[in-house]
Amino acid sequence: MTDPRRLRPATQLVRGGLNRSPHGETAEALFLTSGFVYDSAEQAEATFNNTISHYQYSRFANPTLTMLEERLAGLEGAEACRLTATGMAAVHAALLSHLKTGDRVVASRALFGSCHWIVSTLLPRYGIESVFVDGADLDQWRAALSVPTALVLLESPSNPMLELVDLPAVAELAHAAGAVVVVDNVFATPLLQRPLEMGADVVVYSCTKHMDGQGRVLGGAVLGSRKWVDEVLQPFIRNTGPAMAVFNAWVILKGLETLKLRVDQACRNAAAIADFLAERDEVARVLYPFRADHPQQALALRQMSAGGTLVTFDLAGGKPAAFAFMNALSLVDVSNNLGDSKSLATHPASTTHLRIGAEERARLGITDATVRLSVGLEDVADLIEDLAQALDSLAVPASRAAE
Ligand SMILES: *Cc1c(COP(=O)(O)O)cnc(C)c1O
Q1: How far apart are the C-alpha atoms of 403 and 398, rounded to whole Å?
Q2: Predicted TM-score of the model (pTM)
Q3: Ligand 1 atom, smallest distance to 207 CA
Q4: Residue 92 Cα, ligand 1 centroid: separation in angstroms?
Q5: Concatenated DSSP letters for 375-403?
Q6: Do domains 9-256 and 259-401 have the same CATH topology?
Q7: 88 CA distance to ligand 1 centroid (A)?
Q8: What CATH number was assigned to the domain covering residues 9-256?
Q9: What is the pLDDT of residues 78-116, one digit of tens each?
Q10: CATH fold for the domain made of 259-401
């Protein structure tokens, strides 16, 4: 029999973790049950003693959740995986299960808004020191990691400016400082970037994004070594209860079957759209990791296998142009979500990154003219036509320009 762990990603996505019931169903079964029953009081006792393996309660484990955990672990090349209700519950559990009062955390500044809040606001309440660095600047990482540190959190590429962190270099500095390295790999997906092979210890996902990929359910995942998951993460999850809904796990299992097809196509669409936008006068700059004008293209080519499904760009006319552009879109929707089969446009400064404040936005390079585009699965020619007509609408009419 083939070692299931050695199967290639496309196969893992369809077959990984499949555990059929005695009925021999084709599709993954949905075990929509909160609890489980025992043959006898003795069997219940043996279960709670850990002398036999038996499902107990869906807050701890459930057969549908196990199938998704096994599928994600096989895909990531991780020893173990635990699921959570949302991506934020995954980040929260990974951090709070590991940290204690007096610890120190170093994080890249360019984090998803709620991750930024956990590090900047929540952790200090528990006496955990937090230090932010510019993720692209290795000298800042080196300085921040010159003292003992418990945990490093980073996101690469980052939201929304698609800034990269040199994963092997930062992992080496972090390990020398005694830290575990937690990578939020949502933007890259497990298919485009493999953080564990580059030195990360823990990888976290919002399954809400590309894994469901069709805008239906929330979910999160944490992956790491068997020892860390069993000894550090699992007691925290079991006792604090951020469990993923069983129905959502089933939706995500079925979503994964098409993940590679969807991500590959969305990457092709995104690369074509980035090239189209870069040629337009209404666009002041385009950020896409695989383009030659991305400041970290060489790093992107080293650690990612494609440029991703997001394109970020600045309009030449400031916030009025950004809003007029978004309002003129007829196919692409205005939304703060991403990783969906439907293309979605976001104005980060007034939505996802409103609460971090103008000063922090300026540090991250987010301007009032910045638009983030999550590229979906529509025909790329239709997407480019929609973007083109929205950009055309920004042009000042000749009669008014003359006034
Ligand atoms: C969406 C997202 C999260 C949070 O996930 P939820 O499922 O919305 O809780 C965390 N990190 C990144 C990079 C994200 O895009």
Answers
A1: 9
A2: 0.95
A3: 7
A4: 11
A5: --SS-HHHHHHHHHHHHHTTSPPHHHHT-
A6: no
A7: 6
A8: 3.40.640.10
A9: 999 999 999 999 999 999 999 999 999 999 999 998 999
A10: Aspartate Aminotransferase, domain 1 (3.90.1150)
